[in-house]
Amino acid sequence: MIDDLPAGLRARHLADEDHLRVLAVLDTWWGGLKGEAGATERALLLPRLYFQHFTTTSFLVERGSGEVAAFLVGFLSQTEPETAYVHFVGVDPALHGQGVGSALYRAFFALARSHWRRYVHCITSPENTASRAFHTRLGFTASAVKPDYDGPGLDRVAFTIDLSAEPVAIP
Ligand SMILES: CC(C)(COP(=O)(O)OP(=O)(O)OC[C@H]1O[C@@H](n2cnc3c(N)ncnc32)[C@H](O)[C@@H]1OP(=O)(O)O)[C@@H](O)C(=O)NCCC(=O)NCCS
């Protein structure tokens, strides 16, 4: 499914039974970003519905032991026929910098293209400097910080990439 992952990792589509396993890694993987409020925010971003109704456009990466190594939750926009959206992505910190995140995005871009989606959007918190650097490196264009974008006090940076612009600079 994703053939350019580091050795020992394999990918499949997300499934209902992955829900609690993914929730369990969020705080560690995000390094406790934004404390208690951040933990609540993250958990609320991944209700079970994503593991039921968005599985075919989302990926889970596991080690041979079955341990969760990375995930990407995405979907095709129902409103904008040219758009796909990455909702949430995470990689085990022990695997950072080995191309797992970019492999997940490449797979999602291929899937988006196969459904004739030209644009991929996603957002991140302004405080998440790693995410901002990663998305910029992948070729996304970042907006200015959008105050209260996701609700009072929930500022966001929005990212867009145009998949029709060749070549897409993905490491
Ligand atoms: C952001 C994240 C997904 C990146 O995953 P990753 O597997 O480490 O990324 P990759 O190894 O594929 O890196 C791809 C490129 O982005 C760059 N990059 C990744 N993390 C970076 C960081 N923290 N700072 C600067 N550049 C970074 C890499 O250097 C690489 O570029 P290069 O080829 O020029 O070296 C990962 O750090 C993560 O899970 N963070 C915690 C969760 C999170 O913030 N998710 C995103 C918001 S929802």
UniProtKB/TrEMBL annotation:
InterPro entries: AcTrfase_GNAT_prd, Acyl_CoA_acyltransferase, GNAT_dom. It holds the Pfam family Acetyltransf_1. Coiled coil: none annotated. Residues 9-166 form the N-acetyltransferase domain. PANTHER family: N-ACETYLTRANSFERASE, RIBOSOMAL-PROTEIN-ALANINE ACETYLTRANSFERASE. This is GNAT family N-acetyltransferase. It comes from Streptomyces enissocaesilis. The lineage of its organism: Bacteria, Bacillati, Actinomycetota, Actinomycetes, Kitasatosporales.
